[in-house]
Structure formats: C-alpha cells, structure tokens
C-alpha cells in the first residue's frame, strides 16, 4: 500500500495553475524562443535564402531546398510555441531540429564547440514539451469526440 502526502497533490496542482511562477517562466521562454525562431532564425532562411547560401562556409553547403525546408520548420515551430494547444508538439519538433543542428555543427561543419547552443535549446524545448504535455492529451480528447 502506498500513501502520498497531501503536499504532493498541492504542489502538483499549484504547478499547473496559470498564475504560477513555473507557468510564467514557461510562457516567457516560449514567447522569447518563438519570436527568435520566427524573426531571427527561420525568417531569414525564407526571406533571403540566397544570401545565406552564398555566405555559408565551404564545408557546410546544403541544398537550397533543404535550407527553405528548415526555414519553414523553424517558423512553424516558433509560431507553434505561441499557440497553447500545440505548444508541446512544437517544442518536440524544435527539440529534434536543434539536436540535428547540433549534429550538423559537430560532424559536418567540424565545429563541435558550435553544437553547445543547439543542445542547450534542445534541452529547453524538451522541458517545455514535458511541462506542456497536458495540452497533448486535451487535444487528443477533443479530436476523439
């Protein structure tokens, strides 16, 4: 027989309420990272892909279509972070994307030091996805009706 303390239920309940510090930190991160991916990361790949492709180092030439695809995924993920019902899905997608970016930096571009930033982002996105997992079940339940 297992028993749980009432404090465990209270802390779990408090963590899910909209006004908690954790929720405010999550939304602050989601807004900041969402805007970063829309404006600074994915946006330039869609607005000026030729300039980015021309300025790429010799050992990091990627196909033009892949550059556009990455830009679309980054913009969609950034927008998705700002939408409560799909923020967990967007965080999972961006986490995978940033792990792949870290692998590209470490192994293809041969600059493993540059892989640290995408790996930190991947960890942050994994945390956001974990904390927003209730949105996944709510979306599943609404679609199954």
Quick take:
The chain is built from seven helices and no strands. By secondary structure, it is an all-alpha fold.
Give a verbal description of the structure.
There is one protein chain. With 145 residues, the chain is mainly alpha-helical. The chain has 7 helices and no strands. The longest helix is centred in the first third of the chain and has 27 residues. The protein is elongated. It starts with 5 loop residues before the first helix and ends with a helix.
Please write out the topology:
Blueprint: H1 6-16, H2 21-47, H3 49-54, H4 64-81, H5 87-108, H6 116-131, H7 133-143
Helix pairs in contact: 2-4, 4-5, 5-6
* End-to-end C-alpha gap: 36 Å
How much helicity do the residues have? Answer: over 70%
Beta-strand content: under 5%
Radius of gyration: 18 Å
- Give the biggest sheet: none
Compute the average pLDDT.
Answer: 86
Give the helix/strand class: mainly alpha
The sequence of SSEs as H and E is HHHHHHH
Q: Indicate the overall shape.
A: elongated
Could you tell me the number of beta strands? 0
Number of helices: 7
Poorly predicted ranges: 7-15
What attributes characterize this protein structure?
single chain; about 140 residues; mainly alpha
């Amino acid at each position: 027989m297992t028993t749980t303390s009432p404090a465990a239920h209270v802390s779990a309940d408090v963590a899910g309420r909209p006004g908690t510090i954790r929720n405010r930190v999550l939304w602050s991160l989601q807004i900041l990272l969402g805007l970063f991916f829309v404006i600074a990361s994915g946006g330039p790949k869609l607005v000026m892909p030729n300039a980015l492709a021309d300025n790429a180092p010799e050992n990091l030439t990627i196909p033009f279509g892949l550059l556009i695809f990455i830009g679309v995924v980054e913009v969609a993920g950034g927008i998705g972070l700002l939408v409560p019902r799909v923020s967990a899905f967007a965080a999972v997608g961006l986490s995978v994307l940033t792990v792949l970016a870290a692998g590209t930096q470490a192994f293809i571009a041969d600059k493993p030091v540059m892989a640290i930033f995408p790996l930190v982002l991947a960890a942050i996105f994994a945390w956001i996805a974990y904390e927003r997992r209730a949105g996944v079940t709510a979306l599943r339940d609404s679609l199954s009706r």
